[in-house]
Amino acid sequence: MSKIVDFMEERLPLTELAAFAKKKTVPLHRYAFWYYWGGISLLCFIVQVFTGILLLVYFKPGPDAYDSVRQITYDIHFGWLIRSAHAWSATLFLLSAFIHMFSVYFMKGYRKPRELGWWSGITLLLLGLLFGFSGYLLPMDELSFFATRVGLAIPDAIPVVGHAISNILRGGLEVSEITVQRFFALHVVVLPLLYLPIIGFHLYLVQLHGNALPPSEEEKPAIDRKSIAFFPNFVIKDLGMWLITLNVIALLASLFPQQLGKVADPLASAPAGIHPEWYFMSQFSTLKIVGKLIPGGLGEAAGITLFIVGLLLWILIPFYDVKKKGGLIAKRATYFGIFVVVVMLVTTILGYTAI
Questions:
Q1: Same structural domain for residues 234 and 290?
Q2: Which 3-state string (H, E, C) describes 154-207?
Q3: The model's pTM
Q4: Average pLDDT over every residue of 25-31
Q5: 99 lies in some domain
């Protein structure tokens, strides 16, 4: 063992890494619980990668997509479990990513010098939503087919480029086997190639700048602030949260396995109650509300514009909420965050009650 350690020490900066881990600390306060959600989202992504590789062994994109998913679900030993774990880890991944984003927002973790961490985190969340949208169609059952058809009709409302974007994603005018192949390539090749370097950069920034302190803690004198060692104290607690998350995924996958509906029939009418997954329900519900207020294509354009403006305001928050501008801007930013959370919750609930 000593020879192995010596061999690695000559080639890797193990001593420097160990010294950094011992020196690094994590703030300890009443909001410290929210620090764990970034790690939870990372674990869920790792589970998705592992289960996705196993599903990739049997999945066949294109005309045989539905039959291959049916085989995975009903014929392959524990295929149903792997597929269910993949689906539930995707749900928990996006849920924990949303919680992590809002916790960073309300703790003002986007302020200098953490602006790049905020923007890279937003990028990861948007890519995660694309992961969910592209993977949802792959079983090619009735629900996924018609939900994707509705989802791909939304970009048509974008002026000038909207129709072209929808056609490129569909591979034509309608959702078809070509769409499945394109979504498969997007899901397993394009998005991972984009996601992996960005998440590496994001984790590097977290280690470089450390965990952000909420404003209430920053106001305290340095001598009154508490902290714990990153290694082993915080790491052990983080691993404990990972263990709990793995148990939750295992229980959900076992007790509520992912179902497979009827094979999609493009010529059939959409069944009642077609709706997107929960992480798109707020946008879906908002578009319906705006559409009732402003009928026709103008309402769709207004809804898309509303989303774009809101997203830009959210992304650019580091530019207009800085410490030197005083408490008024900070309070308004906090109220804006509360408003966004309330709107997302209310519109999501309205969307499900309307089904």
A1: no
A2: HHHHCCCCHHHHHHHHHCCCCCCHHHHHHHHHHHHHHHHHHHHHHHHHHHHHHH
A3: 0.93
A4: 91
A5: yes
